[in-house]
Design goal:
Layout (H helix, E strand, L loop, with lengths): L1 H43 L7 E2 L9 E2 L16 E7 L2 E9 L9 E11 L5 E11 L19 H8 L1
Antiparallel strand pairs: 1-2, 3-4, 4-5, 5-6
Length: 162
């Protein structure tokens, strides 16, 4: 009888452990899906609209990315624009960093999406995705669209390799 009780107790604790693993996996999957969705929206958006977001898909801007040191933006006026939105206890934060001070004049923008959550045990978890996107209507110093390489001139590349 004692052996049966111990084996049942062990089985029940294993079910609890398995349930925690399944719950954690489901939360990670949900966070990854939220991060991928936000990154895909940034990828598909018109370049000049990267600093705004329509969260519910109704065509109305719900969020404007900030560079004010508030609302998830770490440092004010650092050229990195940030917004965040919570869904099902997962905080999705996305940043857009143009390579020049004005988005319309930039050659590229680096975008990062982070989905963060806290599990039932109080442990912090995070999924982070990143992408660099070219400005399709960038006008170079010679006045031609797309005339400058986003990677710099050949002389810049030689200096790096010296």
């Amino acid at each position: 009888m004692a052996v049966l009780s111990l084996s049942l107790l062990g089985s029940v604790s294993m079910f609890g452990l398995a349930q925690d693993g399944i719950t954690g996996g489901a939360r990670k999957l949900q966070a990854m899906a939220l991060a991928e969705t936000r990154m895909e929206r940034l990828r598909a958006a018109a370049y000049h609209t990267l600093l705004t977001a329509d969260l519910d898909g109704d065509g109305v801007v719900d969020v404007r990315l900030q560079d004010s040191g508030e609302e998830g933006d770490v440092v004010a006026d650092d050229g990195e624009y940030t917004a965040r939105h919570a869904t099902n206890a997962i905080m999705v934060t996305w940043t857009v960093r143009p390579d020049r001070p004005i988005l319309a004049n930039s050659r590229t923008a680096t975008m990062t999406v982070t989905a963060a959550w806290v599990d039932q045990a109080g442990r912090h978890h995070m999924v982070r995705l990143g992408m660099r996107r070219a400005n399709p209507v960038f006008v170079g110093s010679d006045g031609k669209v797309g005339s400058e390489s986003i990677f710099g001139s050949n002389s810049d590349l030689r200096r790096v390799s010296d």
